[in-house]
Here is the input.
Amino acid sequence: MIIQQPGIQPEIAIQALPDDERVWVPQAENVWFRPLLLNTVTGSWCNLLRVRKSGVLSRHIHPSWVVGYVIEGAWRYLEHDWVARKGTFVYEPPGEIHTLVVDETADHATEMITFFNISGAMVYVDEHGRQTGYEDVFTKLQMCRTHYERVGLGAGYVEQFVR
Ligand SMILES: [Fe+2]
Here is the structure.
């Protein structure tokens, strides 16, 4: 039994880019996420998002803020005229609607990996702004459990990222 000392909390200190490909959880064609922190108290989460060319993160709105930092590659939002490149910091204000793509306009990149800290939820919307789906820390958690079970890591593998 580990006796917890006062002020010593179970932190997370891990290699963010995994050696094991199975750690990447598929979420759409050519789109994966790698969980780093799934905060079930605040409803927020941190992950790496990996998108390969022709992958699209469908149009969505964030009710709360998001910050990101590009680790590899380049990408853009169809709704904006800037390109996020390696080293770019991104702040997405609440109410922002966008569609993330890796394509020719984004430096002809074939892949991007970006760290995102997402608060609240991602609400997927169609061209009229009508909701078509949503993701929150609990749907992410379930996606991880299902994927890790399927690839042999075991559903419990994700628990190390949960707070
Ligand atoms: Fe977003």
User: Anything to note?
Assistant: The CA atoms of residues 125 and 131 lie 4 Å apart. The longest helix spans residues 137-150. The mean pLDDT is 95. The chain is about 10% helix and 45% strand.
